[in-house]
Amino acid sequence: MFAGKTSEAKMKIPKILLVIGLVILLLATSNMPVLAKTPQVSTTGWFTNAFTTNGGDTLLNSEYVTKVVDKDGRELYRMITPVKPPKIKVPAVEVPQNSVAGALSLGNVPAFDWSYGCSATSAAMMFGYYDRTGYPAIYTGPTNGGVCPLDNSVWGHTHYPGVTCGESPISATHNGVDGRATRGHVDDYWIDYGNAGPDPYIANGWAEHSPFDSAGDFMGTNQSKYSSTDGSTSFYYDGSGAPLSDYTGSEPGDRDGCHGMRLFAESRGYAVLANYTQLIRGVGSNPALGFTFVNYCSQIDAGRPVLIQVNGHTMLGDGYNTTGNIVYLHDTWDYSDHQMTWGGSYSGMAQWGVTVLQLAPAAAAGITVASPNGGESWMLGESRAIQWSSFGVSGNVAIELSRNGGSAWEALFSSLSNDGSESWIVTAPASTTCRMRISSVSNPSIQDTSDGNFAISIPTPDTVQLTNLPQTVGIPAHLPFTLQVQASDSLGHTLTFSLLSGPGSINPSSGFFSWNDPLPGQSDVLIQAACSGGAGDQDTLTLQVTAIPPEASTGSADSLSQSAATLHGEVQPHQLATSAWFQWGLTDQYGQETGHGDAGSGNSWVSVSAPLSGLLSGQLYHCRLVAQNASGLAYGEDCSFTTVSPPPALAIGSISATPQSGVSNWSPVTIQAGANRSGNWSGTIHHPSGA
């Protein structure tokens, strides 16, 4: 375990030496970065301090290096990087073009200024580069369309008494920065430059933010639980000069920054193939071991930036020039390119090591245009959806259009959210050789173009015509009227029918017009058929509604007698006040009529009847029903009936009877008989008494 952040190994030094040393220090550091105090290594825990003096070990001349022996007996160097930006910066350089022989500089590498520690800032620049080159989950915040920007100026700066910090959510998250609304790294661990803590979350008794979400979180930067002063990060190196891979032997009391970088990459979902620290050749105890300039160039050639460690400070190397063994780098102090000689010093700080991180290859990124992809015909002025799919693409996309088969391109949308669809109002000029191209804004080499040509066409005028609407129709009053209205659309669009004025109703989809109860008179009905595009046709249908005369139907007579009968029939008034009566007589010319009766004004058949008396018996009579209203007169059919005939006349007579031949002892018999009015016969037999 380590002692507190600000503890310092004390030595008894004569006052004269202190004065001389102070003068030398002031002269020597007028253009050097400010240095922080070195934590003293504890003599208990997982390792012991192997040396109290440098013992000839040149690395131990640095106040930022401690030689330790870990629990496995290995001699390691624990190096801290607390240097903050100097007042006078190192001049920028112009990096040669990659076409210059022996020179190579990676593109897309962000340049951040100091963001709560040089090591976390350098790691953030490295991870920002990976975010821009195929590892889009590194940065997913709202800035720059979700793609890490090329500098951190967009996030602003925060001023403290001891230092000014550039903000960067990749190196150290901070409440209120980049849309964050909760405590982050800065809120939990930072007080001011060089402060030993305890950290704010400890002092205030709140829980650390979770999950960790910045490089500084995982690297142990600024965290008092790892004895890191504000601005500092620890790295461990094998003293022999051999690589020290993913060192975890200091856990849990201390955190190796290189191991923390691995944890950060894995937290973003990416596998790490290798991560190690290594002294440069000539610094370690074994002269045959150590990281060389050739090794560095190989990393750059493979597209991997390298952390460059100098005395108390970390930078990011992103290029080289073999002429003079030059390292091109970003020094965390500004947004510019700088350089140093391999194995030399930077701003008075000697180089002694590197930190290397190798991510597993990212899944191949791609974009596929779905529509228009060839063969479509889009009309000028239409709203069309440009559609695509993508994988492994971070940030926004750009959409371009070619009207000549891909020879020239015009920008439709320079930066859009990569959500797979964008509406576009089709613009002129028309062409039959159009292609669409969609590309990643951050990496334009990731793109796709329509597989074939599609057309942008001048739209054919859309016409709608009512095809069967008559000008005038005569219909009877009060009877339901229907008409199937028909229309056509030149482009085959679906039509909608509507009744703009007039009585009745029309079905919007089928065009079926109906008027259930037409009223007498003239009614104008204005009907329209229209399509969604706006084209339409309308016309007026004039309905001449005529009132209907009544209808009469003569029924059969009943209740017949020699002098009386009852006549029957039915009347349909057709909703006009109607009267009814019967005509009757001995011929079909009638000559007589019954009294007029009220048949009502309904719209259904009504039964009517009239009794007749004083008729002649046994006589054939004719009759018919008559109905009348304001629309006219109606006659029922002629019917006939016969009154009852009178009975036959009364007849009286007698009959005499004689016995048959051979009959003896008989008497004469007389039969009297007569007919009654009903025609039935009756009689009486008379014979002598005693016979």
List key phrases describing it:
691 residues; mainly beta; 9-stranded antiparallel beta sheet; 6-stranded mixed beta sheet
Write the layout of secondary structure elements.
Layout: H1 15-28, E1 48-49, E2 65-69, E3 75-80, E4 103-105, H2 118-132, E5 157-159, E6 164-166, H3 185-189, H4 200-204, H5 215-219, E7 234-238, E8 244-245, H6 257-267, E9 272-279, H7 293-301, E10 306-310, E11 313-321, E12 326-330, E13 338-341, E14 345-346, E15 349-359, E16 366-371, E17 377-379, E18 383-391, E19 397-402, E20 410-416, E21 421-425, E22 431-440, E23 447-449, E24 454-457, E25 464-466, E26 472-476, E27 481-484, E28 487-489, E29 495-501, E30 505-506, E31 512-515, E32 521-531, E33 536-546, E34 551-554, E35 565-572, E36 578-585, E37 592-593, E38 597-600, E39 606-612, E40 620-629, E41 632-635, E42 639-642, E43 652-657, E44 669-675, E45 681-686
Parallel strand pairs: 17-24, 26-33
Antiparallel strand pairs: 1-2, 2-3, 3-7, 4-11, 5-6, 8-9, 9-15, 10-11, 10-15, 11-12, 12-13, 14-15, 16-18, 18-21, 19-20, 19-22, 22-23, 22-24, 25-28, 27-31, 29-32, 30-31, 32-33, 34-35, 35-39, 36-37, 36-38, 36-40, 40-41, 40-42, 43-44, 44-45
Give a verbal description of the structure:
By secondary structure, the protein is mainly β. Helix content is 9%, strand content 36%. The protein contains seven helices and 45 strands. The strands form eleven sheets. Strands 4, 8, 9, 10, 11, 12, 13, 14 and 15 form a nine-stranded antiparallel β-sheet that branches. Strands 17, 19, 20, 22, 23 and 24 form a six-stranded mixed β-sheet that branches. The longest helix has 15 residues, at 118-132. The protein is rod-shaped, with a radius of gyration of 58 Å.
